[in-house]
Design brief:
Number of strands: 0
Strand content: under 5%
Number of helices: 8
Helix content: over 70%
Oligomer: single chain
Structural class: mainly alpha
Shape: globular
Order of helices and strands: HHHHHHHH
């Protein structure tokens, strides 16, 4: 609750939407210069910008009912599906792609847990999970924005993924023998 009390829920949402918009503009500029034409950065940043614009508070204010955590989880899962379809069609990826998939998965999981806590368990008293939720959602959004701009494995996710895959392969080989 500290982040939302300090910045306000609206401004954090607007910051994320603005960040994805700027990442899209940056990648559109880089794409137009033929610097990174063969990557999915342009498509990924476009998908993220559209997703965050659609799910932003501006559009939920215009709807008949207010969006809740389940709606946001579904937006993120739909965004993951669109990103995977784009990957399937383009057959190329960038360093940021894994960051987007992992980030959206974390966000959707947290949205689902908040939905369960608030709507199914009817918890109305703030507790530590609400602070963890607020902090993590905003940090993950920031990491995804940075990943779209720098397109580098700055947290070592690709290295971790490679190590986990090799660990599972060696474990499978040991079990077969």
């Amino acid at each position: 609750m500290f982040l939302t009390e300090f910045f306000g829920l609206f401004s954090l949402s607007a910051f994320s939407m603005w960040g994805f918009l700027m990442a899209f503009f940056f990648n559109a500029f880089v794409y137009s210069l033929n610097t990174k034409r063969n990557s999915t950065l342009f498509v990924s940043s476009f998908v993220m910008m559209v997703s965050y614009t659609i799910s932003d508070y501006f559009l939920t204010w215009l709807s008949i009912r207010t969006a809740n955590y389940l709606d946001w989880a579904l937006y993120d899962l739909a965004t993951i599906a669109v990103l995977l379809i784009a990957y399937y069609l383009i057959k190329k990826t960038s360093s940021s792609f894994l960051y987007l998939i992992v980030g959206l998965t974390i966000n959707s999981l947290l949205f689902l847990l908040m939905y369960i806590d608030v709507f199914l368990l009817n918890n109305r008293t703030p507790w530590i999970f609400w602070d963890i939720y607020t902090f993590t959602i905003n940090v993950v959004d920031l990491i995804m924005i940075i990943a779209l701009i720098v397109d580098r494995d700055f947290l070592g996710l690709h290295t971790l993924k490679s190590k986990l895959i090799s660990l599972f392969k060696t474990t499978e080989l040991n079990q077969i023998q």
